[in-house]
Amino acid sequence: MAMFFNIFSLKNLLVLSLALNLSLVLRVLYEKDFEVNNGRSVDNQKDALTTTDGVLSEARATQRARPSMPSSSSTVDSDGGDTIINLDHGDPTMYERFWQQAGDKSTIVIPGWQSMSYFSDAGSLCWFLEPEFAKEIIRLHKTVGNAVTEDRYIVVGTGSTQLYQAVLYALSPQDAVEPLSVVSAAPYYSSYPLITDCLKSGLYKWAGDARSFNKEGPFIELVTSPNNPDGYVRQSVVNKSGGILVHDLAYYWPQYTPIASAANHDIMLFTVSKSTGHAGMRIGWALVKDEEVAKKMVKFVELNTIGVSKDSQLRAAKVLQVVIHSCQYPTSLGSLFDFSAHLMEERWKLLRAAVRQSGLFTLPEFSPGSCSFLNRSFAPQPAFAWLKCQEPMEDCEGFLRSNNIITRSGKHFGVSPQYVRISMLDRDENFYIFVERLSTIHQRQSVQVDETGE
Q1: Peptide bond preceding 226: is omega within 30 degrees of 0, i.e. cis?
Q2: Strand ranges for 350-413 from DSSP E
Q3: Radius of gyration of the chain (CA)
Q4: What residue range is the signal peptide (predicted)?
Q5: Contact indicator for 200, 210 with CB cutoff of 8 Å
C-alpha cells in the first residue's frame, strides 16, 4: 500500500476521480440525447405508418412473415406525390436486405498478388473462366433444378449482355451475302434491338417481331422465358426451318416463376444480377451444347475485353456458395430463394390491390404451377409488372410520369404505348411509395380537377 501511494499521490487520485465522473456524466447526456432525438424519429415514423390508409395497411398485414420494413418516413407518400419514383430500370436492390442480414458470409478478401494473370485455366476451352466459379454454377443449377449442365460448355461473360453479343457473333456466318436476321416475339426485351444494331454489323441485324417474321433463309430467334417484360413462359413462335434458338433464362429462378423442369436447350443464358441481386458484379454465364459455338463465343469475349474480371468471378463464386448453403441449411430468413419468393409474392399482392383501388389499370393474370424447388404451387410473380392503362389513356408512360412515376413505355418493347414496364425489384421504401401513389392516382386526379374547376 505504501508503494501504491508513492506512485499515486492524493492529488493524482483526485484528478482520476474527476475524470471518471466527467466521463460518466457525458455518457448519460449522450444516451439521453440519442434517445430523445432518435426515439422521437422512430415514434414519428411509426405514427406515420399507423395513420396511413389504403394499400399500406395490406403491407403491414403481410409484414408478419418477414423481417420488418425499414423504418423511414419516406415509406409514406406524405409529400403529395412530389418524390420521383424511378422504376424504369430493373436494378435489383430489394436483395440488399438479405445480404445485409447474411453478414460476412459472402465477404471475400483478394490479396494484391492474386489473379494477376490473364489466364484462369489455359488448357480450358473458356480460358478466362475461374474453375471455382464454374464449379459453383454447376452446383447451383443442380440445387435449384432449373437447367441441365451435363455435356455443356460454360462461357462466362460481363453480364448476359456481352454473352448475347457473343452468341450473335458465334452463330452468324462470316461469309454470308447479307446479315443474319434476329427476331423475338413482341413484347420483347427492349434492349435486344439496340444491342443488335448498335455496331451496325454486317453479320446480323434486328428483324423485329418473331410473330410476323416470314423472310426466307437462316435466322436467330430469341426466346426469353420467363419473358421480360410481361413475365409469361415462352416457347419458339417462328414456324419455319433454318432458325437457331437462343434461350435467355435470366428470370428462370424460383422467386419469379415455378421451376417445372430443368431447361434443356442448346444455348442458355443466365446472369448473377437477377438470380442473386448482384447486378454490380457484371457477371453472366452461358450453357452451350455445341463446342464450336462455345469456342466462337469465347473468341468474341477475347476480342472484346480479353476475358472477364477474375475478381468479379471469385466474388460471384463466393456468393453462389452462400446461396447454395442457404438452400441446404436455411436460416431464420430461409434460403435466398425463400426470402425473395416471399417478398415477390407480397409485392405482387400489394400491386394488384393498388391497381384494383385505382380502377385505371390492368395487369396480366397468371395460372399457378407446381414448383419442384419450393415444393408448392404458385402463380408466377415476375421481376417486372406489365401494366396497361385503360382507355382513353394512350400514353401510359406519360400519364405515370405526370404523377412522378418513371416507367418504360411499351413502344420500346414493340407494342402499344398503352403499356409500361415497371420494376418490382427496387428497395422497400420506393416500392411502398409507388403502390400507395398508384392506388390514389384516381383520387389525386379528381382533387386536381376540383381545384382547377375544370
Answers
A1: yes
A2: 361-362, 369-371, 376-378, 384-389, 405-406, 408-409
A3: 27
A4: 1-19
A5: no
Dist CA 328 CA 317 (whole Å) = 17
Rounded Cα distance, 269 and 281, in Å:
16
DSSP-assigned letter for residue 67:
S
SS3 content of the chain, % helix, strand, coil (to 5): 45, 15, 40
Q: Do residues 251 and 129 touch, judged by C-beta distance below 8 A?
A: no
**Cβ atoms of residues 351 and 363 within 8 Å:** yes
User: What is residue 273's three-state secondary structure?
Assistant: helix
How far is CA 139 from its chain centroid? 21
**C-alpha span between 406 and 84 (Å, rounded):** 7
d(CA 205, CA 77): 45
3-class DSSP assignment, residue 90 = coil
The Cα 343–Cα 381 span in angstroms is 10
Between CA 230 and CA 413, with CA 192 as vertex, the angle to 5 degrees is 40
Cell readout for 57 is: 395497411
pLDDT digits (tens, 9 = 90+) for 219-277: 999 999 999 999 999 999 999 989 999 999 999 999 999 999 999 999 999 999 999 99
> 144 — phi, psi (to 5°)?
-80, -30
78 and 440 Cβ atoms separated by less than 8 Å: no
C-alpha cell at 394: 394512350
| 346, pLDDT greater than 90 | yes
Q: Annotate 93-144 with DSSP letters as a single string.
A: GGGHHHHHHHGGGG-----TTTT-SS-S-TTSSSTTS-HHHHHHHHHHHHHH
Inter-residue contact 250 to 125 (CB < 8 Å): no
The Cα 125–Cα 123 span in angstroms is 7
